[in-house]
Amino acid sequence: MLENRCDVHTHTLYSRHAYSTVRENVLAARDAGLELLGVTDHFSDMLFPGTDLGHADLRDYQHFINMGVLPRVWEGVRLLHGMEADIRTLEGGLFGQEIEVDADITGRPARRPSTLYARATPNCDYVIASVHYKNFADGASLERTTQMYLGALAQPKVLVLGHTGRAGVPFDVREVVGEAARLGKLIEINEHSLEAARRDGRTWSSCRAIAETCAELGCQVVVNTDAHVCAAVGRTPCALALLEEIGFPQELVATRSAEAFLAAMAGAGLDVPEL
Ligand SMILES: [Zn+2]
Ligand SMILES: [Zn+2]
Prior knowledge:
Elements: E1 6-10, H1 22-31, E2 36-43, H2 62-65, E3 73-74, E4 77-86, E5 100-103, E6 109-115, H3 116-120, E7 126-130, H4 142-153, E8 158-161, H5 173-183, E9 186-190, H6 191-196, H7 202-217, E10 221-224, H8 237-245, H9 258-267
Parallel strand pairs: 1-2, 2-4, 4-7, 7-8, 8-9, 9-10
Antiparallel strand pairs: 3-4, 5-6
Helix pairs in contact: 4-5, 5-7
One zinc ion binds at residues 11, 15, 17, 42, 228.
């Protein structure tokens, strides 16, 4: 049996279509025997319909700015601060990178204008980059969609490419996985994608092909729930079944222990918080 003791992709009430608090997720993580939990709410205009993609009110994104108040160890579970940012351009640009903010969280004018991404990420330990709205990639060549993921991987805070097997944007798996391996970054095997997929379904086989390429090229994966309710935290039977089906090596599962995940963060060039 493969070991998996971290869940580094989970959502809270902040994401609006998720239903639990950070504490409820922490307690669920503790009960599931996890060593480490990552809080990674959506950083996306899906949260605030009508978002002006040129300008934002920082007050809508305070969640990311104040994450320092969360205990680093809570109920015995180590806690990381993250976000799941939407990939929004074929260059791998992320939500918020082209959105200007000119006021602080009190609504007072900021000393100098900045981007929403630059203001929201300093308190994030890592970013998961995922495609949710894929219309910008409609009709794009495989070369360009591959470049999209390569561009996202090149961003300093991006540690994980989220649910690439179900995002609906085809890409050159060998090239992206090879680059992730070279950078020490991580490819996600996402339980939420697989539990809905039938074992013979398209999502299952595309996730399986991605996992096989990770094993072949020595790229580490993270096995995450993408939980939108605390009851799902720490439960990854489908993702582990998929990995076991292909004899995936335990040592490439970065979520096998807290130590392994923190070492992977360092290996990818990210700052590792004191936990
Ligand atoms: Zn979601
Ligand atoms: Zn998610």
